[in-house]
Write a structure and sequence with these properties.
This protein is of the alpha/beta class. Helices cover 31% and strands 15% of the residues. It has an eight-stranded parallel sheet with strand order 7-2-1-13-12-11-10-9. Strands 4-3-8 form a three-stranded mixed sheet. Strands 5-6 form a two-stranded antiparallel ribbon. The chain is globular.
């Protein structure tokens, strides 16, 4: 992890920066280029979201539907694979990772997911392929050796219940990958999921190792985890972030990870309101708090920090000030599409 200087070194706690899908504000997400930029700009961890191919290989895509992040729609050879599926209760049309072998996916190229807001990223369209989890581990290990510091990994297991339901469960494949490589046995490794059962399973298999933390992702405004919905019983996300729910989460996880606005909600005019008690409550339960996600464009900022009216304007100073407002609530880490701005926010506190 990166050592600090100045104001950052004087903070009473270590606040960690997670490169969200790499440095996705500056490079197409989930590409080695995006992860490389995140590392250069000071991320403590890089984040691969993991889905599984038809032939059982873990690859980095934020969703299993790849229509927005690859050029698959322009590939006539795969036109017949366009389909409609229901994933975690949501019907989607597109092309899906699990309908492709790894060799087929490797013929595709990444594109920018938000070209209207990030036109500078679109110039990289077509340059990078879809990396496997193994390639990302090797890349992080190489970067660690080159830079003389550990590069943490913060993989998210995506759609666990869905993938299990189609005969491609993620968890044992993921565990096998950890056993097969030296680097994840010694690097900072924080494993995330919006579901509960898979984290409980991983805790039972992994125990409590000094380099590994489990992160329970939550979105209090969005109902219940997919595995809870399928089982027909279990807590909602809102119940999970209540004091009693946090105590239960702490039995199997080390980190609670809510969205930013669950920590400081917005007022009716989109300015920042008063902080909630979630950070304090989580710390009382013995959990770290890692929040998601800071993005530098005006479109994503609270009204207090916007500049002008262009939603695509890259508002660096506003983003830094917004991040600092959240750091002051006592969070232990945060995801950022631009880890360099996150590092600037920490260094200038």
């Amino acid at each position: 992890m990166i050592g600090g200087s100045g104001a950052y070194a004087s903070l009473p706690r270590k606040v960690e920066i997670f490169g969200h899908r790499g440095a996705s504000a500056l490079r197409p997400e989930h590409t080695l280029a995006s992860y490389a930029k995140a590392i250069v700009d000071g991320a403590d961890y890089i984040e691969p979201d993991l889905c599984v191919t038809k032939d059982g290989v873990l690859v980095a895509r934020h969703e299993n539907n790849i229509v927005q992040t690859t050029d698959v729609a322009k590939r006539g050879a795969f036109a017949d694979r366009k389909t409609t599926k229901t994933v975690d209760g949501q019907q989607q049309e597109g092309w899906f990772v699990e309908d492709f072998t790894l060799a087929e996916l490797k013929t595709l190229r990444a594109i920018e997911r938000l070209p209207q807001l990030r036109p500078q990223n679109a110039k990289y369209d077509g340059q990078f392929d879809i990396p496997t989890w193994q390639e990302i581990i090797d890349f992080a290990a190489a970067e660690s050796a080159t830079r003389g510091r550990m590069v943490g990994l913060v993989p998210e297991l995506k759609h666990s219940t869905y993938f299990a339901g189609i005969g491609l469960p993620l968890e044992d494949r993921f565990l096998a990958s950890l056993a097969a490589h030296d680097y994840p046995r010694r690097c900072p490794l924080e494993i995330q999921s919006f579901e509960i059962a898979n984290l409980r399973y991983l805790r039972a298999k992994l125990g409590r190792k000094p380099n590994i933390r489990l992160m329970q992702l939550v979105d209090p405004a969005s109902g219940k985890p997919a595995d809870v919905v399928k089982a027909g019983r279990g807590p909602s996300y809102a119940e999970m972030v209540a004091p009693a729910g946090l105590v239960d989460v702490a039995r199997y996880a080390d980190v609670i990870a809510p969205p930013t606005r669950a920590i400081i909600p917005l007022n009716a005019d989109s300015t920042l309101g008063a902080p909630t008690s979630l950070v304090t409550d989580a710390h009382k339960a013995g959990l770290l708090v890692h929040i998601w996600t800071f993005r530098p464009e005006n479109y994503f900022l609270a009204a207090d920090f916007r500049a002008g009216t262009d939603p695509a304007f890259r508002n660096e100073s506003g983003s830094v000030r917004e991040i600092q407002a959240y750091i002051r609530t006592g969070i232990d880490g945060f995801f950022s599409d631009d880890p360099g701005l996150g590092r600037r926010a920490l260094n200038s506190l």
